[in-house]
C-alpha cells in the first residue's frame, strides 16, 4: 500500500467513514429515535482536499425499494397551513389512505423511522416540529409487522424544538343554525434526546333542527290539529355535543445503549344530545273520523350519549447486532352509555277518543313519562407488538432485509340493553406471528445485472390464533422493479383470512326512532325505526387481492410524479352493512324488515350481515408536483437561507446563531474545488473502487485499528480522531464489520463525481459559519423537494420565493359486485344496485393545491363525485333514482401576522390567523326520480344540513 494512498484514506476517514457508519451505530439509532442530528451525509469527504461530496439523507428516513407516494420537507409542511400534525395528516388524506379498498384503518405511523405505539403520541404536535414527512405504499407496512392494507407515514422530527401554543376556533354555516367552538393549549419541547408534550382541548357544537332548515316532513307525520307542536322543531340534524381531551407524551433516548423509550396517556370525554321528534297518536272518533295529534313538546324524544375513554401507549426500541428491536403496547378502556327515551303510552287517549269523551281537536291531557332505555357498552383493548428488523445477509445485489413480528391482542366487550333479557360479554385473544423478507435480485447501484435495473422480491407470511375463531393465516408476495431511477413498478398478491371485529359481533342493539328512510320497494320516504348493533353470527372473511403500481418521476417537469394503480379484490364470507332496501334484498333478509298490514315500512334492522362473495376492480391515478416560484432574495454575509425568524415556535439556535444538525465543523463554504483538489479526490476514489478496493480498505482500517504510528509520514494525520471514527464500523463484539466498510465503499463508488463542491479552505471560502451565501452547517442545500433535498427555507419561502403544490388523485371503479348468498341475487353496485342509501359513482377525484409567499398562504381542496343510479322496483313500478355528480371546493387562507407586520417581539410575533370556507360554492348533490322530483329522504338539507361553512382560527405561539 503506497504512502500516498494511506494518506488519502486516513485523512478522509475522519469525515467520510463516519457518515456511513452512523446510520448503524447505537448512538445514531437513539438519535434517530428521538429526532437528534437530523441530517445524515451518506458520504462526505471534507479532508484537507477541501472537497465535499454529499448525497444528503435525513436520519430516520426509510431506505426501502418502494418509491414514496409523497414526500414533504420542512417548507412544504409549513405551506399546508395546518395547525397540528392531526390536521396535516387529514390534509394529505388522499396520499395516506390505502388504495387497496380494504379499509385497513389509519396508516402505520413512524417517528424517525421507528414504529410508535399510537398516533396519539404525535397528533397534537405542531407541524413546525417536523423536518420531513414520507408517505410510503402499503407493501412497506409489512416491514413493521402490519398487513399490506394501510400505508406508512414516517415523520422525522427536528433535533431541537420548543413551543407553547394557544389556539381558538369559531366556526359555523354561513346561514347560521349552529356553531362550533374549540380551545386548545399545546406545549412541546424536544431537546437532548427527549420529548415532552402536553395537550388540552375542549370543544362544543350547538344543535340544528329540521325546522331551522325548512325540511319538508313526510306524509302522515304532521299533526292534523292547529296548535299542536311542529315535530320538525324536535328532530335534530346536528346533535348538541361537547368534548374534552387531555394528553401527555414523554420520550427519551439513552445515547449509551442506543435505546429509546416513550409513553403516552390520554383521557377523552364526549357527550351529545339529539332529538328524535315528538310523541304522536292517531285518534279515531265514534263516527270513524280521525286526527293525528302530536304532543309532549316539553319532553321530546331524546337520545343522550356519553363516553369516557382512557388510553395509554408505550414504545421501546434498541439496536442489537444488526437488528432494530421495537416493542409497542397500546391499551384503552372505554365506557359509553346511550339513553333512549321511550314513546309515551297513548292507549288511554285512544280509548277516550273512541268512547267520545275526548274530542279529536281538544287539548290533550298530560301523559305520564314512560322513562327511557339504556344501552351500555364497556370495552377493554390491549395490543402488544414486537418486531425485529435487520439484514442478516449481504447478497451481491444488496442486503437481504427481514422483519420478524410477534404480537398479542386482547379485546373484551360487555354490552347491556334494558330492552333485551340477556347481556353480551365477548372476549377475544389474538396471538399473531409473521415474517417478511425482501430479497435483492439485481442492483443498478451495486452494478449487479444493472442492465435489468433494480429488482427486489418480497414475501410475507403470518398466522393469527384467535380464541373465538381459531387459526387464521395470511401470506403475500411481490416484486419491485426500477428499470430506471425515475421509474418504479410493483406487483403484489395478498391472501388473507380476517375475523369480524368484536364490535360487529357484540355491540348492543340500539333503536333510533323517526329516521327518514327511502323504501325502494314502495318508492316512498317514511319515518322508520332503524336498528343498529352487532351480529354474533358473522363469519371469518377470506380475501384475495392483486395490486399493480407504476410510479414515474417525470423528466420533463421538475419535482413531478405520476402514478397509476390497478387493484383487484375478491372475497368470501364478507361482513358488510345491509344493502339498500330493494325487493331482492328484502327477499334475502326478510327478518330485517317490519311492515304494517298495508305494506308500509315500520322498522329496518341495519345490523351487519355476511355476504357470500364480493368482487371489485379499480384504477387509481395520481399526479403530484411542487416547487418554488419567484426569484430568490439576495442574502448578505452570514444570512441563513430562509427560515422563520428565531423566536416563538422556532428551534433553538446553536451557538453563533446557526441551526446545526450534525454536519462537519465550520459549515459548507466557498466556491468550487481547485484542480489539485479534484485530482486528489479522484485518485482516492479510483483506488477505492478498483477490483481490489475492498482489500485496500481492509488494510487501512486494520492499520488504524492497530494504532500504527503514521505521523512521521503524514504530519497532519490525527490517529486518535481516526480511531474514534473507526469505532463506528465495529459490531457488538468489538471487531470491524466488513459489511459496513463495504457499504461505505459502495456509496462512494456509486456517487456522481460531479456532485463535488467546495469546502472550507478552498478559494474564495469565508470563515467557518459566515460564508457569503452559505447555509448553516448541515442544512440541506436546495434541490428537488420530492427528493427530500431541502429547498428554500421558511414559512412560505424565507428566501423570497413562494411555494406551490398540486396533488390530484382520480379513481375509476371498474367492477363492484356483491353476491348476497350462493345461488342468490347478484348486486351490481355500478349498474343500479346499492349497498346503502346512495348509488356507487364510477368516477371520483380529489385535488389539493396551494400557493404560499412571504407568510401568506392559500390552500384549495376539491372533491368530485360522479353520477350514479339506483334502480326502482320493476314489480311495483317504482321509479329509479338518479344521483347527479357533485363538485365541492374548500378554501383555507392563513397569514403570519408577525411576519407581515415585521414584528420581532410582542403579541403579534408568532400570531397566525386562518380563515376557512368549506363547500365554498354551497354545492349539494341533487337526487331525482324519473319525473325529476326529489324524494323527501333526499332533500338537500337532509343530505347536507351545513352547506357553506365558515370559520376563523386564532393561533398564538410563545
Q: Quick one: how many beta strands?
A: 43
Q: What is the residue-averaged pLDDT?
A: 81
Specify the helix fraction band: 10-25%
Structural class of the helices, strands and pairings?
mainly beta
N/C terminus separation: 59 Å
What is the 3D shape?
elongated
The share of residues in extended strands comes to 35-45%
Account of the protein in words:
It is a single chain. This protein is mainly β and 958 residues long. Helix content is 13%, strand content 44%. The protein is built from 15 helices and 43 strands. It has a 22-stranded antiparallel beta barrel. Strand 23 and strand 24 form a beta hairpin. The protein is elongated.
List keywords for this structure.
disordered N terminus; 958 residues; 15 helices; elongated; mainly beta; five-stranded mixed beta sheet; 43 strands; 22-stranded antiparallel β-barrel
Task: Give me a quick take on this structure.
The chain is mostly beta strands and 958 residues long. The chain has 15 helices and 43 strands.
Fold blueprint:
Blueprint lengths: L2 H11 L2 H6 L4 H9 L4 E3 L9 E3 L2 E3 L11 E4 H7 L4 H7 L1 H4 L11 E4 L2 E2 L14 E7 L15 E6 L3 E13 L6 E12 L2 E12 L2 E2 L26 E3 L1 E15 L4 E17 L3 E6 L5 E6 L6 E19 L2 E19 L5 H9 L16 E24 L2 E20 L6 E19 L11 E13 L3 E15 L2 E12 L3 H5 L3 E10 L4 E9 L8 E13 L6 E17 L6 H6 L4 E3 L5 E5 L3 E21 L45 H14 L4 H13 L13 H8 L11 H13 L5 E3 L43 E18 L6 E3 L14 E11 L2 E10 L2 E3 L10 E3 L2 E11 H5 L9 E8 L8 E2 L11 H4 L5 E9 L1
Parallel strand pairs: 5-8, 27-31
Antiparallel strand pairs: 1-3, 2-33, 4-7, 5-6, 7-8, 9-10, 9-43, 10-11, 11-14, 12-13, 14-15, 15-18, 16-17, 18-19, 19-20, 20-21, 21-22, 22-23, 23-24, 24-25, 25-28, 26-27, 28-29, 29-32, 30-31, 32-34, 34-35, 34-36, 36-37, 37-40, 38-39, 39-42, 40-41, 41-43
Helix pairs in contact: 11-13
Amino acid at each position: 500500500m503506497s504512502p500516498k494512498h494511506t494518506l488519502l484514506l486516513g485523512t478522509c476517514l475522519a469525515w467520510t467513514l463516519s457518515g456511513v457508519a452512523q446510520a448503524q451505530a447505537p448512538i445514531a439509532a437513539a438519535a434517530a429515535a428521538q429526532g437528534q442530528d437530523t441530517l445524515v451525509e451518506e458520504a462526505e469527504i471534507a479532508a484537507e482536499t477541501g472537497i465535499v461530496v454529499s448525497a444528503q439523507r435525513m436520519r430516520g428516513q426509510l431506505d426501502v425499494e418502494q418509491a414514496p407516494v409523497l414526500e414533504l420537507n420542512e417548507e412544504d409542511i409549513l405551506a399546508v397551513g395546518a395547525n397540528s400534525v392531526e390536521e396535516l395528516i387529514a390534509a394529505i388524506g388522499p396520499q395516506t389512505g390505502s388504495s387497496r379498498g380494504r379499509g385497513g384503518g389509519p396508516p402505520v405511523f413512524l417517528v424517525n423511522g421507528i414504529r410508535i405505539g399510537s398516533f396519539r403520541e404525535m397528533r397534537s404536535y405542531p407541524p413546525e416540529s417536523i423536518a420531513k414527512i414520507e408517505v410510503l405504499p402499503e407493501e412497506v407496512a409489512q416491514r413493521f409487522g402490519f398487513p399490506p392494507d394501510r400505508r406508512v407515514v414516517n415523520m422525522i422530527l427536528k433535533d431541537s424544538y420548543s413551543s407553547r401554543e394557544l389556539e381558538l376556533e369559531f366556526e359555523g354555516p354561513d346561514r347560521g343554525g349552529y356553531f362550533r367552538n374549540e380551545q386548545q393549549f399545546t406545549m412541546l419541547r424536544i431537546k437532548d434526546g427527549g420529548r415532552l408534550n402536553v395537550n388540552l382541548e375542549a370543544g362544543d357544537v350547538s344543535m340544528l333542527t329540521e325546522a331551522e332548515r325548512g325540511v319538508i316532513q313526510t306524509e302522515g307525520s304532521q299533526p292534523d290539529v292547529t296548535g299542536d307542536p311542529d315535530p320538525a322543531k324536535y328532530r335534530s340534524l346536528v346533535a348538541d355535543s361537547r368534548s374534552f381531551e387531555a394528553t401527555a407524551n414523554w420520550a427519551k433516548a439513552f445515547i449509551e445503549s442506543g435505546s429509546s423509550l416513550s409513553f403516552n396517556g390520554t383521557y377523552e370525554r364526549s357527550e351529545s344530545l339529539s332529538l328524535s321528534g315528538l310523541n304522536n297518536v292517531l285518534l279515531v272518533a265514534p263516527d270513524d273520523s280521525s286526527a293525528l295529534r302530536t304532543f309532549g313538546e316539553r319532553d321530546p324524544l331524546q337520545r343522550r350519549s356519553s363516553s369516557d375513554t382512557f388510553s395509554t401507549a408505550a414504545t421501546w426500541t434498541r439496536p442489537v447486532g444488526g437488528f432494530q428491536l421495537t416493542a409497542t403496547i397500546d391499551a384503552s378502556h372505554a365506557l359509553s352509555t346511550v339513553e333512549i327515551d321511550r314513546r309515551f303510552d297513548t292507549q288511554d287517549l285512544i280509548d277516550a277518543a273512541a268512547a267520545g269523551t275526548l274530542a279529536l281537536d281538544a287539548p290533550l291531557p298530560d301523559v305520564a313519562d314512560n322513562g327511557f332505555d339504556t344501552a351500555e357498552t364497556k370495552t377493554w383493548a390491549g395490543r402488544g407488538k414486537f418486531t425485529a428488523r435487520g439484514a442478516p445477509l449481504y447478497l451481491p445485489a444488496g442486503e437481504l432485509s427481514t422483519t420478524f413480528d410477534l404480537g398479542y391482542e386482547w379485546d373484551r366487550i360487555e354490552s347491556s340493553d334494558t330492552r333485551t333479557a340477556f347481556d353480551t360479554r365477548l372476549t377475544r385473544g389474538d396471538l399473531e406471528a409473521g415474517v417478511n423478507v425482501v430479497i435483492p435480485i439485481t442492483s443498478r447501484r451495486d452494478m449487479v445485472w444493472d442492465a435489468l435495473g433494480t429488482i427486489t422480491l418480497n414475501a410475507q407470511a403470518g398466522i393469527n390464533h384467535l380464541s373465538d375463531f381459531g387459526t387464521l393465516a395470511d401470506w403475500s408476495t411481490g416484486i419491485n422493479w426500477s428499470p430506471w431511477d425515475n421509474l418504479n413498478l410493483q406487483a403484489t398478491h395478498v391472501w388473507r383470512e380476517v375475523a369480524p371485529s368484536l364490535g360487529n359481533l357484540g355491540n348492543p342493539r340500539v333503536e333510533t326512532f323517526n329516521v327518514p328512510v327511502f323504501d325502494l320497494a314502495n318508492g316512498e320516504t317514511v319515518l322508520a325505526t332503524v336498528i343498529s348493533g352487532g351480529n354474533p353470527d358473522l363469519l371469518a372473511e377470506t380475501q384475495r387481492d392483486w395490486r399493480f403500481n407504476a410510479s414515474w418521476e417525470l423528466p420533463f417537469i421538475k419535482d413531478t410524479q405520476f402514478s397509476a394503480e390497478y387493484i383487484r379484490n375478491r372475497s368470501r364470507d364478507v361482513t358488510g352493512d345491509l344493502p339498500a332496501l330493494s325487493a331482492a334484498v328484502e327477499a334475502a333478509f326478510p327478518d330485517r324488515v317490519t311492515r304494517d298490514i298495508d305494506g308500509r315500512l315500520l322498522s329496518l334492522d341495519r345490523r351487519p350481515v355476511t355476504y357470500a362473495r364480493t368482487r371489485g376492480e379499480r384504477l387509481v391515478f395520481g399526479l403530484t408536483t411542487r416547487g418554488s416560484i419567484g426569484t430568490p432574495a439576495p442574502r448578505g454575509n452570514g444570512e441563513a437561507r430562509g427560515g422563520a425568524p428565531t423566536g416563538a415556535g422556532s428551534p433553538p439556535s446553536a451557538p453563533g446563531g446557526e441551526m446545526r444538525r450534525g454536519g462537519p465543523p465550520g459549515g459548507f463554504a466557498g466556491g468550487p474545488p481547485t484542480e489539485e483538489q479534484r485530482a486528489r479526490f479522484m485518485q482516492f476514489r479510483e483506488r477505492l473502487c478498483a477490483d481490489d478496493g475492498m482489500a485496500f480498505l481492509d488494510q487501512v482500517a486494520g492499520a488504524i485499528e492497530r494504532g500504527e504510528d503514521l505521523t512521521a509520514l503524514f504530519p497532519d494525520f490525527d490517529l486518535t480522531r481516526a480511531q474514534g471514527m473507526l469505532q463506528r464500523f465495529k459490531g457488538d463484539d468489538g471487531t470491524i464489520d466488513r459489511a459496513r466498510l463495504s457499504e461505505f465503499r459502495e456509496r462512494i463508488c456509486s456517487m456522481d463525481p460531479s456532485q463535488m463542491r467546495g469546502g472550507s479552505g478552498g478559494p474564495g471560502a469565508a470563515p467557518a459559519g459566515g460564508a457569503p451565501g452559505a447555509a448553516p452547517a448541515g442544512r440541506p442545500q436546495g434541490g428537488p423537494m420530492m427528493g427530500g433535498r431541502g429547498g428554500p427555507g421558511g414559512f412560505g419561502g424565507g428566501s423570497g420565493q413562494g411555494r406551490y403544490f398540486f396533488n390530484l388523485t382520480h379513481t375509476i371503479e371498474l367492477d363492484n359486485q356483491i353476491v348476497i348468498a350462493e345461488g342468490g341475487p347478484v348486486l351490481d353496485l355500478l349498474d343500479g344496485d346499492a349497498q346503502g342509501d346512495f348509488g356507487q359513482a364510477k368516477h371520483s377525484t380529489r385535488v389539493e393545491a396551494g400557493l404560499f409567499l412571504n407568510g401568506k398562504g392559500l390552500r384549495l381542496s376539491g372533491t368530485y363525485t360522479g353520477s350514479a343510479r339506483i334502480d326502482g322496483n320493476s314489480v311495483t313500478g317504482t321509479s329509479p333514482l338518479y344521483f347527479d355528480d357533485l363538485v365541492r371546493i374548500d378554501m383555507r387562507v392563513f397569514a403570519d401576522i408577525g411576519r407581515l407586520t415585521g414584528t420581532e417581539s410582542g403579541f403579534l410575533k408568532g400570531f397566525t390567523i386562518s380563515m376557512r370556507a368549506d363547500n365554498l360554492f354551497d354545492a349539494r348533490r341533487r337526487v331525482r326520480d324519473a319525473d325529476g322530483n326529489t324524494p323527501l329522504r333526499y332533500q338537500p338539507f337532509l343530505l347536507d344540513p351545513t352547506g357553506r361553512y365558515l370559520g376563523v382560527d386564532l393561533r398564538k405561539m410563545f
